[in-house]
Amino acid sequence: MSIEQVVLSIPDAVVTTGVLAKIPVNISDLTGLNVCAYELIVECDPAEVSIDGYDSTGTLTAGWMSAFNNYVSPFSKSKIKLAVASATPTTGAGTLVYLNCTPLVDGNVTLTPTSLVLNETTVPLAPVPLTTPPIEGIPTPPPPPTVAEPVPVPEPPVVENTPIPDQVSAIKSDIQDLKDDIAILKYDILNKLESIDTKLASTK
Predict the structure, then answer these.
(1) Over the stretch 7-30, which tens digit does the pLDDT of each residue have?
(2) Can you give the pTM of this predicted structure?
(3) Apex CA 67: angle with CA 62 and CA 71, to 5°?
(4) What is the 3-state secondary structure (H, E, C) of the chain?
């Protein structure tokens, strides 16, 4: 079997408006084909369903690196592109990936794969008749509420009491005045001592 003979299918899903659903993208046996990368484009009726994301948990490509686009033109929530790769090839048949969808109507919705590239080989996507009835959409639990982390409040900066130039000048002036007062005081003390000495000498 060659890569060109691989069969991809997405069964119709029975969904309920507003109830998130996981719709599987199924693929035939990849054993021996050394498939370690794929690129998938899926389209849908924008009036029926919105393709919001994907989930590879429990699939043939669980843990592979991936890139999902449903918002950069020409892609949207009604035309998505998913690119996935790994260093280790996958094997077997089963679910390649789940597409997380928000139904906009009740009843059957159809997702249509319009392009599939395995490694570097384009796989023809001929319509595949379903041999089983439409599956029930698998409800997807809503994500847990996001708890905002506390934002640290920065401490106010420490302002050092650095004298401004006018204050420095005033301080210098005060110091000089103090020196002058000390000099005057010394002069008065010396004069008084001389006067005392003079009086003592006159009484002898």
Answers:
(1) 999 999 999 998 999 999 999 999
(2) 0.63
(3) 130
(4) CCHHHCCEECCCEEECCCCCEEEEEEECCCCCCCEEEEEEEEEECCCCEEEEEEECCCCCCCCCEEEEECCCCCCECCEEEEEEEEEEEECCCEEEEEEEEEECCCEEECEEEEEEEECCEECCCCCCCCCCCCEECEECCCCCCCCCCCCCCCCCCCCCCCCCHHHHHHHHHHHHHHHHHHHHHHHHHHHHHHHHHHHHHHHC
